[in-house]
Structures are given as C-alpha cells and as structure tokens.
Amino acid sequence: MGDIASLILKRLGLGLITLLIISIIIFFMVELLPGDIAQAVLGQGATEENLAALREQMGLNDPAILRYFQWLGGALTGDFGESVVTGERVSAVISDRFVNTLFLAAYAAVIAVPFAITLGVIVALLRNTLFDRVANVLTLTSISSPEFFLGYILILYLAVKAQMFPAIASLSGDLSLGELLNRTFLPALTLVLVVTAHMMRMTRAAIINLLASPYIEMARLKGTPPWKVIVRHALPNAWAPIINVVALNLAYLITGVVLVEVVFVYPGIGQSLVDAVSKRDFPVVQACCLIFAATFILLNLAADVGAILTNPRLRHPK
Amino acid sequence: MGLFVILYFAFLIIASCLAAFYEKRGVFMMLFSLTLVSFILGIVGGAGALRFIAIAAAVLAFAAGISYAFKEFLVIIAPRNTSKELKTAPLTAAFGMFVIFTYAIAGIFAPWIAPHGESEVISSAFAPADANMLLGADQLGRDMFSRIIYGARNTVGLALLATLAAFLMGALAGLLAAVKGGWFDQFMGRFADVIMSIPSLIFALLMLSIFGPQIGVIIVAVAIIYAPRVFRLTRAVAGNVVVMDYIEAAKLRGEGDWYLIRKEILPNSTAPLVAEFGLEFCFVFLLVAGLSFLGLGIQPPTADWGSMVRENATLISFGDITPLIPAAAIALLTVAVNFVVDWMLWRSSGLKEQ
C-alpha cells in the first residue's frame, strides 16, 4: 500500500502546484489592468487626491509581489479583503452564498449520478437499437442547448403553465427542508438535465469500450449468462471509468451553476461573481475565481485518485 | 371522440398494416408501438396529447423530408468525388448541413432578409405580433424577427471568429511543438495543462472583468481558453505523423520546419482537425452565448441571441415563448454542427464499430 500513498501524495502535490500557478494568474491578471485598480474603480473623473487615498487604503503602493503574498496568505485563512464597491468583507458576503451553491450542486448531483449511470449502462447494453438512437439524439440536444434555454423552458412549462414549482429560487427566511427542496427544484433539475446527458454519453462510451475487450468475448464464448458477464466480468473493470465520469461531470456542474443561478436568481456564489464582474469589483472576482478553480481542480484530482485506486495498472507507471 | 382521433388511429393502423405487408420490420415496429403508446396517452391526456404527438411527428417528417431533399440536391451539384461521400451521409448529417446552410444565408443576407433594422424602434415595448412584425416587439419596441435574423450574423460571426483565432493559435503551437520537440514541446504542454485546469466560463469572466466586454477582448479571451484543447489534439495527431519515414526523408533533404508543417504534416492530419474545428465551434458558441446572456458579450444595441433572451425574459412569466426563440436558435445550430461532426468522425475513424 505504500506506493499507492506516495502516488496519491504526488498527485496532490501536483494539484497544489497547479492551484498556486492559477492563483498567480488570477492575481497578476488584475495587474494587467490599464492604469490600476483605483483608476478602474473610480473611473475617468477621479481626482488625483481621491486616487491617492484609495491607493493608500487598498495598499496599492506596495510592490505587486508583496501584495500577492499578503493576498494569498489571507485567502488561505479565508480572508479575501474588502469589496471595493460596498466596502464589506468579501468573506462575509461569499461564505453563505458558497454554502448555497454547494447545496444546489449536491442536490443536482444526488439526482443525476445514479440516474445517469443506470441509463448509461442500459443504453450501452441496448446499443444500436431504436432506444439507443433516441437517447443519443436527446442527450445530444440537451448538451447542445445553453443552460439558460433549458432553465427557461422548465420555468415556462413547470412554473408558469403547470404552476408546480416556484420560478424564482429565493431562500429568504427559515425554510423547512421540504420547502427548500421544492424551491430549489427547478434550478437543480436544469443542472440534472445538462449533467445527465454528459454523464450518460461518457458512461455509454466507457462500457462499450469495455464490452469490446477480448476477455468479455471469452466469457461470452464459454457460455456465461449475460447478466453474469456484466456483473462479474465487466463491472469490476467499469468502476474506474465510471468514477472518472462522475468526478469530471461534478467539475462540469461547477461552471454550469453560474448560468443557472442567474436564470433562477438563486443567491449563490455564481451570481455574486457575475455581479462583481459587471461592477468591476476585483476582490470579489478574484475570490470567486479562486474558489471555483480550486473546486474544479479538487474534483479533477478526485477523478485521478479514484482512477488510481480502482485500476491497479495505474499504480505502476511506466 | 372527435374526427381527429378517429383519423389519427386509422392512419396509424393502416400505415402499420402496410409496413407489415411489405415486410419493413423496423417501420412496422415503430408505427405499431406508437399506436399502442397512443392508446394509453389518449386515455390519460385526451385528444390534446394525441394532437401533440401528431404535430411532433409531422415536424419530424418535415425535417426528414427536407434533409433528404437537401442531401440529393447537394449530391447533384457537388463534384463527383464529394458527391460519392455525400451519398453515404445519414439523414441527421444532411439535416445538420441544411441548418448550417440556412443560418449562413440568414447571416450573410441579413440586411436584405430582415424587414427592419436591428436597432430601429418601430413600435411600443412588447407590442404583440402583427402583419408588420412577425414575432412582435422586444422590450424597446424593436422588431424581434429582424433582430433574430441579424443575430445570426452577429452571434455566429463572433463565435466563428473566436473559433478561428483559437484554432490558428492552438494548431500552430501544436504543429510547432510536434516538429521541434524538446523543451518547447514540454513547456507548451504544461502551459496548456494549467490553462485547461481553470473552468472556461470562470476564466472568461475574469478576463472580461479586467479588460471590459469589447468584441476584441472576447475573441482573444476565447482564443486563450480554447487554444489548449486544439493544441493537445494537434500535438497528438501531428505526433503520429512526425515519426513517419517520409518526414525523415524530407528532413534529410534539408527541408525547413515550415515546409514540413505545410507540405507533409498538415495534409495528413486534416480530417481530425476539421472535425475538431466543428466541436470547438460548438463549445465556443455556447460560451459566447452564455457570456452575452450574462450581459458581457456583444453590447447593445447590436442584436445578439444571448442578450435577447435575457432582455425579454419577463415575457416568459406571462407564458410567451418568443424570448426562447433565440435560445432555440443557439441550440439548433449547435445540434446541427454536432450532427455533421459525428458523421465526419464516423467517416474518418474507427468509430464504425460502435
């Protein structure tokens, strides 16, 4: 087991380095701003004194490297500085919203993962039948539709016409869990539709790939019943690709959530990112970008580690 | 039970009997299972559900018919070699080509097709549809139909430019990396890894927040985000070509890198690259549409599908589907490109086994 641990540690280290490089990109990208942050915040009409005061307040007179380390140190302890528009602590604004976003993503994932994998396996077993063709066209359509299209269609039919669910996911006040699930159902369903389509296609491809391998052919030829071929021979080897598919699609959820939150006016971190971008509130933008990128990398890392754990061949890299 | 329901079932049963008589098993199974499903749906949903099925089937048949006719048309006008290939195209690919063709016509001839200008205010806000305005007016009283036509030019044009930029950057870097190898190859590979580990929409938002939502910035941002994917594919494809004997021979003849890329490697890796261009276009198109939906794409008053959906979204709460038409236009084009790409991949690779 020793080499597994070291292999996983190596992956984690690689992930950390990637994250560090990304934090550098996110921080120094803002330095590329024509003029500087103070100029961008106050606009063209700012007086020299105002600019100087804001620069002093934001610590812009220090060299960029020093500020980067201060920012990174703060970010590690959960402190992302102050919003330049409202003056609030960024961490105070974001932390609740981050929990909301995680809730939405988890809600969608809990529905989508079992559903998509079951459907993917079924479609792989029924490949080249009419059912498979129809599923192919449907998933392709779902992938090709922008998230806001699916979201508004659901609003139109389930909220406006059928009046089954609320169209706007406001989370104000104390809500029981049932009420909460009801209010966030439409945004979650939108995410489920997008992610299920991706996950189904990837599961189908992985299983078909597997079913084409010689040892499955061998099992069939020696007369093993079909269900046993799947359960005993195919499934143990299918875990690796399936875990990979799940982790990659959860990472995909992270970006899909931004558009869905805007459509449903859901108080999540994606919404605050979009607001901050249009208001040019750089500390908030940086914090949100860092959080999204970190989650994305973490999930990709989980995919790698899962693949290593379930596939012994990866434990002995050439 | 109205006349419609009787006609509906009579048609289905006669058609399935005919299919069975002429031993078209697939058609028969489809028609007859549709009949059985309709029995249940008819009981549950009444004539409305059956009408919906009939309309959906008619739309499908119409799409299939037009794709078939368009395919035959292409086969006739195309030169001999191409038309041989086109004959093997499935209906879905023909449909894709038809849709792309339609969008191209709408985009190129927008000023002549659209009855009004894209930013011309001709009526009151959210005026209903009439003979003058096919789809009614938007939130400022501009003609929705004209704006959708102009959107084909602006939105698709922007996505196309951005894809081209990403493709040129990525493919050039990939080819150079394959030819040069060594530290350049290593460096570009790691660089691509880092860029690809940032979620694309987030990275785009970061860049737009800094440089502002101008068209040039959008194109550059999208190019930076998607070039690494193209780079990886090109590097992989060209990597297989570079080890061939004829490349060795060309090197021994003393040909330069540029000659190798242009005359030896590119002609042998066009098929996967063209398919990748289609896929890449889909990604870019969806990203650009998402950005403009967030109000960070093409700025008003230029017509643009993503922002049109956002601006008219209030209409949806009144049960009006007009704001969804631009979104549907985005989805339709992406599906169409995917259909064509599927066919090209199937043709050029070993995916035939599936």
TrEMBL record, chain B:
Q: Membrane-crossing residues?
A: 29-47, 52-70, 90-114, 156-178, 198-226, 277-298, 324-346
Topology in membrane: Multi-pass membrane protein
> What region holds the ABC transmembrane type-1 domain?
152-345
Lineage of this protein's species? Bacteria, Pseudomonadati, Pseudomonadota, Alphaproteobacteria, Rhodobacterales
What are its GO biological-process terms?
Answer: transmembrane transport
Where is it located?
A: Cell membrane
Keyword Transmembrane found: yes
What name does UniProt use for this protein?
Peptide ABC transporter, permease protein
Write down the InterPro entries for this protein, in alphabetical order.
Answer: BP-dependent_transpt_permease, MetI-like, MetI-like_sf
